[in-house]
Structure formats: structure tokens, C-alpha cells
Design a protein that fits this description.
Helix content: 40-55%
CATH class of the largest domain: Alpha Beta
Number of strands: 11
Largest sheet: 6 strands, mixed
InterPro entries: P_Ac_Bu_trans, Phos_Acetyltrans/Butyryltrans, PTA_PTB
Strand content: 15-25%
Number of helices: 11
Radius of gyration: 20 Å
GO molecular function, one term: acyltransferase activity
Domain Phosphate acetyl/butaryl transferase: 8-74, 81-295
CATH architecture of the largest domain: 3-Layer(aba) Sandwich
Structural class: alpha/beta
CATH topology of the largest domain: Rossmann fold
Shape: elongated
Number of domains: 2
Pfam families: PTA_PTB
Keywords: Acyltransferase, Membrane, Transferase, Transmembrane, Transmembrane helix
Distance between the termini: 20 Å
Low-confidence stretches: none
Mean pLDDT: 94
Length: 302
Amino acid sequence: MRFSGFESLVDRAKSLGRAKVAVAAAADKEVLEAIKLAEEEGLITPVLVGDIEQIKCLSQEIGLDLEGSELIHETNPLAAANKAIDAVIDGQAHFLMKGLINSSDFLRAVLRPERGLRTGRLLSHLAAFQVPGFTRLLFVTDGGMNIAPDLEQKIEILQNSLLYLKGIGMDPVNIIVLAANEVVNPKIPSTMDAQALAEMSQAGEFPGAIVEGPLALDGAVSAVALKHKGIASQINGDVDLFLVPTIEVGNVLGKSMVYFAGATMAGIVLGAQVPIVLTSRNDTPRSKFMALTMAALNRTIS
């Protein structure tokens, strides 16, 4: 199964019924606008943790009906994050969203030693892109969390993404491990890692996936480019997920799709007990809404 675009994700999420999302420090206009979109689509029921008076004021400004929402009063952002995480742990919410709180403080709360959301796995970011001209969503990992992952960390990042993508019905998943070119070179560690991951895939270590690499971007998306280069490929340009070598590559690839190709982007953090919506201040309410959709799609995965 594949998803043609974000609307197909929304349709799938709606078929699962409403998921409860705990929002930490929820007095944020753009976040509440995204909550409004998701609530009106029937995707979520919000648990809003923060300054209740500010939340009510902002909600009135944007036309968000709070009748079905649960409000938990807490003016301190870090304490609000802790209470939102408590709501998840206590079964009051299926997943977590960051509001008006510093990302590092928010993640420290997520990973707190007692009553945190640790699993022992690496946290990683998975982004989805709807790119004009492509008939399916493209996924990228990890352009948001891990700076320069080594091979063992790339294995964990790959496993996080596979757990999510297979959990939402994608099987098999075509994965390209990106590098500058297709030549394995000890002076370019990313090519060595890509070769190792491809060999692991051939040995059956990533069930439900085909992993190929190293490949440059043209070979990842173009069967014509592969033919010109004389490269044999099972994926043959039909990629679902890019595994990038560093955070810079993921960041530039993602922003290039958005700013040069007009793509729509959304992303979530994986590896905790539940999916986490951790968006940027630059993200539009619709992008935040799509991230909520991603998290709501399969509330049993982590």
C-alpha cells in the first residue's frame, strides 16, 4: 500500500476514529489553528495543557470550539510538558504535541528518568513530502534529530521509520540510502554505511523493506538516470523513503523540495512510546495539521 498524498493519509486516519492528543504549553495560536483543523476533520480530541485563560482567548480569536476539549491549567511551560506527558502515560492521550515551549526543554521532559516516554531506542525524525509531479508521498529520515549518525544509529533510525511505515500499511517499503555517488569509498564513510545497510537488507534483516545504496539522488528517483549509469536496481527509481547520511543533507533535501518544488511537508518524532508532533515555528498550521495526521494514523506504534 502507498499513499498518493496527504489527503489519503487524512482519509486513513479518519477511518480509525478520533485520537486524543496531549498538547504541552498549548497557548500557541498556530498550534491551536492546527488543532482546530484536525478536530474539525474528526481526527483528534485535544487535551490542552497550559494557561487556560490564554488558551480560551486564542481559541475564541480563531474560532476553535473547546466544548469537547479537556483543559489542564499550568502556566509554567516545563510543568505543562510534564503534565502532558503524564496524560499520555496515564492513558488520557494517544500521542504528544509540542506547543509554546523550547524544544530542548520539551525533549528533556519526554526523556525524563521517571514517568518519561523512553523506550531505549534512539529518537529520530520522519518527514513526509507531497511533491508536485510525484504520484506518492516521499519520506525522509533523519533531517531533524540526529546530526551525524554512525552505522548503528542509522540502523535504529531505519528501524523506527520501518515500524511506522509498515504500521500504517506500507509493505514493502523501498528505501534508498543516499550518498554523493554510487562508488563505495572508505574516504566517504556514508558510502560504507550504505553498503552495509544494503547487505543487511539482502540478508533479510529488514523484513518488509528493500534497502539499496549508496545511491545519489538522481538514481534514487529516476530509472532513466540508473540506466544511463548502468546501475541495476530492484527499486528502479520507485523510492518511498530516503535515509540521509547527516542532518544537513536531510534539512537541505527537505527545504529544497518545499521551496524549489512547492512541496507540502509534515514530520513527527519516532522512537518514544508514542509518536511526537514537534513542529517548527516556521511550519504553517496546515503543515502542523498534517503532522497531527501522521501521528494519529497508528496510535499503537512508537
